[in-house]
Amino acid sequence: MTADVVRLRPPMHRVSPRAVWYWATRAAVLWIVLLVPQVIWWFADSDGARLPHLIVGVAWLVLAAVHLAVMPQWRYRVHRWEATDTAVYTQSGWLNQERRIAPISRVQTVDSERGPIEQLFKLANVTVTTASAAGPIKIDGLAAKDADQLIADLTTRVGQTTGDAT
Amino acid sequence: MTTAVGAGEEAVVDAGDGWRRLSPRMLAVHPVMELRRLIFPLVAVLIGLRNGDGGDGGWWALAIGGFGIALGFLRYFTTSFRITPTHVQVRRGLLQRRTLTVPRDRIRTVDVTSNVLHRIFGLARVTVGTGQTDQKNNGVKLDGLSAAAAENLHRELLHRPAVKPIPDVDSAMQSRPAEAATETVLAALHPAWVKYGPFTLSGLVAIGVLFGVGSRLVNEGHVNLAKIGVVHDSIAFLRDRPLPVAILLVAAAIVVFTAIASTVGYVLAFWNFRLSRHSSGTLHVRRGLLTTRNTTIEERRLRGVELSEPLLLRSVHGARVLAIATGLRVGRGADRGGSILLPPAPRAVAVDVAGTVIGDPDPLTVALTRHGRRASVRRFTRAVTASTILILIVLAFVLLAGAPWWAFWTALALLPLGVLLAVDRAASLGHALTDDWLVSRHGSLVRRRYVLRTDAVIGWNMATSVFQRRVGLTTLVATTAGGRQRYPIPDVPDAEAIRVARAAVPGLLKQFLAESG
Fold first, then answer.
1. At the N or C end, where does chain B have fewer CB atoms within 10 A?
2. Measured between alpha carbons, how far is B457 from B448 in angstroms, rounded to an integer?
3. Are the CB atoms for B437 and B293 separated by under 8 Å?
4. ipTM, 2 dp
5. Do A134 and B463 touch (CB under 8 A)?
6. Residues B22/B142, Cβ–Cβ less than 8 Å
7. What is the distance between the alpha carbons of residues B218 and B210, in angstroms, rounded to a whole number?
8. Cβ-count burial of B85 within 10 angstroms (0-12 exposed, 13-18 middle, 19+ buried)?
């Protein structure tokens, strides 16, 4: 075992390409929520000086544009998942990235959720929890049918293990 | 796992089917407990009456409190519990009846607490912990059993291993096993340990509470602090001194008060402390001067120990020991303090006790693998960045808001302090893997050494920030079902992270390894 060259490879599967749009929409909603009060303030405060509002507004817009342009693509390149007979392995994040591995024998629940934005893009996420509050493994942006398939697979495999998984 | 069963499915009445009640003496305790909550409104109303501008809020609070006392009485009549060979059941509620059923093999801890009032009336509160007690209202809590009943219940629940489902309830209740089981004392409080009290800072909490009480009295009772003699005199005294002297005097007063309060707190919490091991496979912690607390942890659920050394305590060679056990979450609600295995004590004793508890002294003394220069450099950059940002904020206040310049010069001291902290943090960083144990140590203000059984690791998280990726470091987190749930090894070199993860949980990572570097 030559410890120095041993590396983890990334998980096998990419998420659905539509996830890029999902992440972009989600971020856009957040930016709108942040920007709307500012625009209202701008109009309400019409007798004050325009310049500070303009500078702050432009700064916000540039930040938002960069975030919306960079984040979803970056995430799409990072987010990956894989489920084998014995383990679930995921990689997620963009600036801060995280790889999570949990053995199937320690899995407590498998559950799936489809929020409004996810439904719009026919996506679903799958969350695999273990007995540890720090261990949930979430796979974001799966195509809905892949998610269903994954849940079916995982449920079968988890059902074959015994013990209380703590 | 706890399941709430609807009342309809449990249509048995309080016949001799094993349902038991709390002690009737609880009827005396509960109103007093409720009264304790009423002290503030009472005082406020009294002061309000004297000043002639009666506080209406106070009256309302009193009325609501009276209602609470009535409810307290009702609680006695509506709460009952029973212990079958396989389950513990609690029924409570007046309008909405609830039956809580806990399978006995899921019981992980039993905690018997009596505060002063309880003790006067010879009562105790029993909390049965399952893995889920951290969720609200989900645990089995029996407030107001007679002390003897609590002791019996305690024994019934935990000291009988491998409960077989016997259909006959009564036989299980009566056949109390002869107490042949032996108890070994692992540690007991040495009066000299009280000297560690001032170094625990628990007194800061007391200051916070006093401050809270004070401000509430001022607000609700319309007390003018400046009119009180002592306060008035000390303010006048301080006003005559130059500002730095006044600040020093106040700081000194706070330090002295904290030291005294911390010592008192230590005695109150840990007097009569005793840690013992029962031959049926449980650990007992008994402690407390006024409020006594008696915690039992099933050793089967023990996943490791944590040696915690806050900076002040470390400076006098002291340490505490906490248990890592499933069903005991550190610092959460009812479990707060429930995982303490040893109060602040000499470090050598702490190491010894921790080693005895896990049955292997090695993980606590083994030399740790350092994380290397890159990890140390990260400690420095982080400390310097944080101090610089704080200093710049102070500078901004000085320039824009007209704060005095000495604030800025004082803030500059943050830089050397930050560097000192970084030196210590870098020195703390380390990990090790012995036969069965994963060891990780980090932190400076609170240096912690986690010793976790490798088979208790139920997953790995490997987190990397942008900066960590640039220098090839990973924060490897072992997730587990007990204690803090996550036990990190910060800033470990990538290859070492994978080596540790592979060695601790064999076979898991193999399938995900790259073919070659």
1. C
2. 18
3. no
4. 0.88
5. no
6. yes
7. 12
8. middle
Contacts of B501 in chain A (CB under 8 A): 101
3-class state of residue B340 by DSSP: strand
Candidates B260, B8, B468, B377; CA nearest to A96 is B468
**Model confidence over B207-266: pLDDT tens digits?**
787 787 777 777 766 666 666 677 777 778 877 878 778 888 888 988 888 888 888 888
Query: Which tokens sit at A48?
Result: 């004050």
Answer positive or negative: Cα dihedral of B127, B128, B132, B136: negative
Residues in chain A within 8 Å Cβ distance of B372: none
- Per-residue pLDDT, averaged over B184-210, amounts to 85
Report CB contact under 8 Å: A130, B479.
yes
- Rounded to two decimals, the pTM is 0.79
A119 touches chain B (CB under 8 A): no
- A107 neighbourhood in chain B, CB within 8 Å: none
Q: What are phi and psi of B323, to 5 degrees?
A: -90, 145
Is a pLDDT exceeding 50 seen at residue B1? no
Residue to substitute from A132, A137, A166, interface B, most B β-carbons within 10 A: A132
Judged by CB atoms closer than 8 Å, whether chains meet at B512 and A82 is answered as yes
| Sequence spans of domains, chain B | 16-78, 203-270, 362-371+429-517, 372-427
- Amino acid B263 reads T
Buried b / exposed e across B393-412, counting CB within 10 Å, b at 16+? ebbeebeeeeeeeeebeebe
Classify the C-alpha dihedral B352-B357-B360-B363 as positive or negative: negative
Judged by DSSP in three states, B472 sits in coil
Mean pLDDT of chain B: 80
Q: In what order do the strands lie in the sheet with B20-21?
A: B3-6, B98-103, B87-92, B80-83, B20-21
Distance CA(A104)–CA(A86), nearest Å, equals 5
CA end-to-end span of chain A: 30
CB contact under 8 A, A106 and B480: no
